[in-house]
Design a protein that fits this description.
36% helix; Rossmann fold; alpha+beta
């Protein structure tokens, strides 16, 4: 990638004098790169052999342009300790202050590494840096609000670093045919692009190769590259229509943000004691470890309740405590009582609402979440989308989290209506006829 980028730059501007730096963990690729640098007259000491995540070969240095094609979806378990230490001890003074993704995919770690190498903007005349990195689809949306991935996206977008994302065709790489995306980041955007992100849909811009190279069956033709550049320069927002798919969309930064709200509903339980309730309760972990005498008291109390039901927890607990004491249980602890009523209780919308300190207790089995766009008022959304369906619901604002995702496919989705039923039936009848003919030939 480094060598090809150099050739391309010199082809575009013969007077350009690029100075190349690079880091590679694979020893063979590292040796090939150094050999190529000798041929190009570049400094071989500018190429570093080491793991980018644990051994930053250019610590504290900044560059004008950066390129990277890190491994897709590779776990970083072996680097976890070093990366986590840098995150916790250095914060934003290090490379990974924004957050850490899940261990199963370290793609966003490489992105943050590149961001740390961008030239800081200290005056209006500073030109900053631009970077491009090829990633799979996972970094666009993996991780909900509050997750490491979401926090990284939030930090990048809210700091207005994300400039554009280009969706490439599938089957573009030798070892994988998955969908890939080029992220372009710029810390010195033009006035027109400030506070905005452009998405470019180039999935249908390709030519088929005459001979495949592993999984690579497609390539970008010169006209495809020209079209992508024109779309980027045009910076236009296209609408989806039936005739042609949209190729470019422009969004404000905040349009990728949302708040995940937690919707609670009141706890309403019916307590019905059947003939076998005692035996089911006695095998639960909390009750099974009680002394035999206490277990016998619980069995005796519940057998006496057989066939009865309560729709009020306080009434049930009051009678339960009395029955347990009468059965010989000297000390009736709160944990035991809670285990009994939570085990026996079943949701009943007609039962009394269970409260604590005057407030309804939430039913965790009915707990749900909603994603509310940042630009929308939470209370208005809640009144419109939730309360008409569950009037007794409320929001636990302490659990509200901000998240960011880039649902690329959703923004370019085009609805394709199913074929008419008559057409499908016609095809089925034709297939049945063909099968019957084939069977008759076999029988003959």
């Amino acid at each position: 990638m480094l060598s090809v980028a150099y050739d391309h730059l010199v082809e575009m501007n013969p007077d350009a004098k690029p100075v190349l730096y690079g880091q590679e963990v694979n020893s063979r690729s590292y040796a090939m790169c150094k050999s190529d640098m000798v041929i190009k007259g570049q400094g071989v000491d500018n190429i570093y052999n080491g793991d980018t995540l644990t051994d930053d070969g250019f610590h504290g240095e900044h560059f004008d342009f950066l390129l990277s094609n890190p491994p897709f979806g590779v776990e970083w378990k072996t680097q976890q300790k070093a990366v986590k230490d840098e995150h916790e001890q250095q914060g934003f003074a290090g490379r990974f202050g924004a957050g850490l993704p899940r261990v199963s995919d370290g793609s966003l770690l490489f992105l943050m590494h590149l961001v740390s190498k961008m030239r800081p903007i200290r005056s209006p005349d500073d030109k900053g840096s631009r970077l491009a990195i090829v990633l799979n689809g996972s970094p666009l949306f993996t991780g909900g609000a509050g997750s490491g991935e979401s926090n990284i996206r939030q930090w990048i977008i809210e700091n207005d670093l994300l400039d554009a994302i280009i969706a490439l065709p599938t089957d573009m790489f030798y070892n994988t045919g998955i969908s890939t995306y080029v992220w372009i980041l710029d810390n010195a955007k033009t006035a027109e692009r400030k506070g905005k992100v452009q998405l470019i849909n180039a999935v249908e811009m390709f030519g088929k190769m005459r001979k495949s190279l592993g999984s690579k069956r497609k390539e970008l033709r010169p006209e495809d590259i020209k079209k992508i550049c024109e779309l980027y320069d045009g910076f236009e927002n296209h609408d989806n229509d039936d005739e042609a798919p949209a190729l470019s969309k422009v969004f404000t930064n905040s349009e990728f943000g949302y708040r995940t709200i937690t919707v609670e509903r009141p706890l309403q339980l019916r307590f019905h004691v059947a003939d076998d309730t005692a035996e089911h309760l006695l095998v639960t972990k909390a009750i099974a470890k009680l002394p035999p005498a206490d277990q016998d008291a619980i069995r005796s109390a519940l057998v006496g309740f057989a066939g009865r039901s309560w729709t009020n927890r306080d009434a049930f607990v009051s009678e339960l405590k009395t029955a347990l004491k009468s059965a010989g249980m000297a000390k009736v602890g709160a944990p035991v009582i809670k285990t009994i009523w939570t085990t026996i209780g079943e949701h009943d919308p007609e039962a009394d609402v269970i409260t604590a300190k005057g407030n309804p207790e939430p039913d965790t089995s009915l707990r749900d979440t909603e994603n509310v766009p940042l630009a929308e008022d939470i209370e208005e959304y809640f009144a419109r989308e939730v309360l008409p369906h569950v009037p007794d619901a409320w929001i636990d604002h302490d659990k509200t989290r901000v998240g960011y995702e880039i649902p690329f496919t959703r923004h370019f989705y085009r609805y394709t209506p199913p074929r008419p039923l008559e057409e499908i039936q016609k095809d089925l009848r034709q297939l049945v006829t063909e099968i019957q003919v084939m069977l008759s030939e076999v029988g003959a």
